[in-house]
Amino acid sequence: MEEWGARFDALKCEIKGLEPLVKHVYDLCAALGEEARINEDKVLNLERKRLQDKVMAVCIPQVISTQPSWEEFVKTGEAKIEQHHLDFADLMCEIINKCEDALFGQLLQDMFENDARDTQLRRVYDKTAKFYAQLPDEFTTQDVMRICGYTKNDSASRKTKEWVRANVVEKLQKGVFRKLAKAI
User: Fold this and answer.
1) Burial code of 88-119, b = ≥16 C-beta within 10 A, e = fewer?
2) N or C: lower Cβ tally within 10 Å for the chain?
């Protein structure tokens, strides 16, 4: 820790090559914005507006510390973004978002509702289960866009990937899925 702290303190350059990571994190936050719009969730919308900076604050040191050659990085200031950096950003986005929601979600909800209640886990008004129930047993990404009201294919793709990871749907081929669960 001490060694890396000293390295970061000595680093005095603009970091080049972060654009793919910035775009990826921006897209993650945009997908959350789409989810907030669909669910009319003011809290998620507010939380995701601050999320990008927080995720980047964690990801940039991870990118720098995992470069193949520290000496080459110091010389060029060029970071090479690899898939594991994007996967780490996905994980950090999810963790930070869930922590923010658990810690501040209900407080923000109360602020929006102008209601004085004790702090508790926020009630989430998620329409995902309703949308899932409306899908046919075999469906496409376009079906998800239409039923969920997404305006971007990326948002529908992220939702189907989320369902695949949760084992509620299986991917049959590109853009085609089958339900494994009757309801979620």
Assistant:
1) bbbebbeebbeebbeebbbebbbeeeeeeeee
2) N
